[in-house]
């Protein structure tokens, strides 16, 4: 099987598997912009003091760069109140300081899909495997042709 066919098959599979829910800006292959990640519900004392937070979750708003809707790099993350997939509210400094101090709301607890978290690196590993198979197959057919 040729390397081009393997690459085309990989690209087609990635296009089918990747969901556009994470895409904010960009063409189908490259995505940039802001992305929201939920972490957990607001603490009960915050909901009691600020009733608007009842229907919101604590989350992070990050800038991101992605390929096929899988994040390659995220940066400039800010703790926010997330309501829905595309809506957020900035938090007052004293509330943000309180939530940052609680390990339950650490960035390491963001809820991300498997594709969003590992998709790019998995696709890159598959591409390397396919290219390796193509190189070995090409070398094998070249050796057979030289022997004949």
Can you tell me about this structure?
This protein has a 4-stranded antiparallel β-sheet. With 148 residues, it is of the alpha+beta class. The chain is built from 4 helices and 4 strands; from the N terminus they run H-E-H-E-E-E-H-H. The protein is 43% helix and 26% strand. A hairpin with a 2-residue loop joins strand 2 and strand 3. The two termini are 21 Å apart.
User: Please, how many helices?
Assistant: 4
Mean pLDDT: 81
Could you give the distance between the termini? 21 Å
Strand content bin: 25-35%
Radius of gyration, whole Å: 22 Å
Number of strands: 4
Quaternary structure state of the chains depicted? single chain
Which percent bin holds the helix content?
40-55%
- Helix and strand composition category: alpha+beta
Question: Low-confidence segments, ≥5 residues, pLDDT <50?
Answer: 12-23
Put the structure in a nutshell.
The chain is of the alpha+beta class. The chain has four helices and four strands, in the order αβαβββαα. The model is unreliable at 12-23 (pLDDT under 50).
């Amino acid at each position: 099987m040729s390397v081009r066919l393997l690459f085309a098959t990989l690209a087609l599979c990635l296009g089918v598997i990747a969901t556009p829910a994470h895409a904010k800006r960009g063409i189908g292959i490259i995505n940039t912009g802001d992305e929201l990640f939920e972490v957990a519900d607001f603490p009960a004392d915050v909901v009691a003091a600020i009733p608007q937070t009842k229907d919101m979750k604590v989350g992070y708003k990050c800038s991101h760069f992605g390929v096929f809707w899988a994040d390659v790099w995220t940066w400039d993350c800010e703790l926010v109140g997330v309501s829905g997939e595309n809506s957020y509210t900035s938090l007052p400094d004293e509330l943000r300081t309180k939530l940052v101090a609680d390990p339950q709301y650490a960035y390491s607890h963001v809820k991300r899909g498997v594709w969003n978290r590992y998709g790019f690196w998995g696709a890159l590993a598959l591409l390397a495997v396919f290219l390796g198979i193509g190189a070995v197959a090409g070398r094998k057919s070249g050796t057979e042709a030289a022997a004949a």
